[in-house]
Design a protein that fits this description.
The chain is an alpha+beta fold. The protein is built from 13 helices and 15 strands. The protein has 3 domains: 182 residues, no CATH class; 100 residues, no CATH class; 79 residues, no CATH class. Helix content is 30%, strand content 17%. Strands 1, 2, 3, 4, 5, 6, 7, 8 and 9 form a 9-stranded mixed beta sheet that branches. It has a two-stranded antiparallel sheet with strand order 10-11.
Amino acid sequence: MGLVKKGDIENYWSTNEYTRTPFFGKYMSRNKFQLILSNLHLVNTVNPAFGKQGHDPLHKVRDFLSMVERNIRHAYKPNRDLSFDEACCAFKGRLRFKCYNPSKPNRFHIKLFQVCEATTGYILGFHVYTGKGTSCISNQANCLDENCSKTTKIVLGLLDSLSLLDKGHRIYMDNYYTSPALFEELYYRETYACGTVRCNRKGLPEAVSKKTKMKNGECIFRRNEIMLAIRWCDKRQVTCLSTIHEAVEVLTTKKDKNGNRKLKPEMIYDYTKKMSGVDISDCNMAFFSCNRKTMKWWRKLFVHLFNIIVLNSYLLNKMYGDLKLSHPDFVEYIATYLVEKNCTTASSLPRQRAGKPAIGNGNHYPEKIPNRRNGPHSAARKCYACNFTKNQLSKLGHVDLKLPKKCSSFRCTSCQVALCVDPCFAVFHTDKSYRKTLLDKRVSGLI
């Protein structure tokens, strides 16, 4: 469903010759899929009520969430450059820890703090935000300054839980997290950082934090023992902080009006190149996401985590696998392999469901429909096969056709649906396109 985009789930089983997709109906019926989807659950234990001891906001996905975190952490050893940012799982329903941010592509969402490899977008780990006052990754942070900000504790706590500290990594982040206090904490944990910074952060030098008029291309550098702060003017003024770079400028591929290559601070150049790890992963997941509208938040998050698994699998196959497939080809390969390996075709199975012709499978005999009131006469119901809804008539090319209702006192012993003895009973169990056949008979006046 991530490759084939359709508006409604029912459309994947459509029999319209212009829009039908035979793959879905070949391996599973529509009713069976919807029945499994409506009864899907990931846990079978009880969660204490909100406010009571032991309550877990992510209880409904906790087991699956822990499995995903554990596997993606141990499956790949990342390169030096990483990016830290927020990711979003779109959700508009009622949820205590739902977030709102109008600047995001999905304004209403479940927020995830996420660490990715800067170049490939491989997701190394994440933490689901569950609201203020709940158990958060910031509570697990080991900081030198106990009075540091919440964002500092979030970054340190997540990196520490993923075992990414004390290994010489370089972290790129935006101005929501960047501060001199955070960079100092990371520096003493042998982890280096770079990012844009807000001018009101404590500890910034006045020459960088104070707004002044600057010409295009002008740059101000200030350094202490471990950190470099700059203020650079291009189309607008940008302030950055780094424990990685020196106060040097590099040539870019862009040219000015005179044809000369433009200069840019090395810090800015590396930041724009390596900050987009989380954005790369979000973009790749959005192309082939199988997420759909639902009122259950945990189902949205479950599918989002499933998309993370597929994306990371594709990136690992791209780096180390023998099959060099594109992203859509890889998703298609995984889907067809799993289905063909574990399923038999729907046509080879006995069909005992209502409304599905069994074509010689099972024991199908007509029987009287019993009267619930134990009266002398049998009950009568609408014939399942030769009565048509407006949607069914439109699909069969008869939009304005109006047919009188037909009832029957007989039903099938196996299918348990009411059917006219002649000819609906035989046509229903022997003809796959029984609706079209019976509609033609009704239009022509044969029944």
